[in-house]
Amino acid sequence: MQCDVITLANKKTGTIELDDAVFAFDVRRDILARAVNWQLAKRRAGTAHTKERGDVKARKGKPFRQKGTGRARQGTSVASQMRGGGVTFGPRTRSHAHKLPKKVRLLALKSALSAKQAEGKLVVLDEAKLKEGKSAVLAKHLTKLDWGRALVIDGAEVDANFARAASNIHGIDVLPSGGANVYDILRRDTLVLTKDGVEKLVERLK
Asked: pTM of the prediction?
């Protein structure tokens, strides 16, 4: 399919052929959900930790004699019902990450790209480069472009000035093609790909 190519000044400079195998793929919402859950699970710290009976530093014997006190009998001072005792079935430090097949990850990325194309929220940029890394310069361009919250995906490397200028603008993310992922694509309103970015993504996904 054909797609217009624009500049940062919002002027059309030509067209580009988008590969149907990558940008006109059947959108699989179930696979998108699996990919997003996989990404977010890897981000979880998993540092919640409570002390069980064996971890509590206290005297493990009977807190008082069996009979004659008028209280319920207790066998240990670290039982969960005792003050300062261990926690029963509490959270422990662990990793929440799980595996997702590589083929499923590639299908999910194709689905995410195709979903943006189908919604008309895919923009192809000639190049994402600036002469100076100033946010005010980039902000003027973004006002004309009206992208809203956008993700810009460049080629193998991101222009340093463009990345520096975008870092101070809320709602604008910049990634190299190797860092393209389902979660970041779906969470932004507009997906902006440079011509180099399109080429690298097609090489990666075909």
From this structure: 0.84
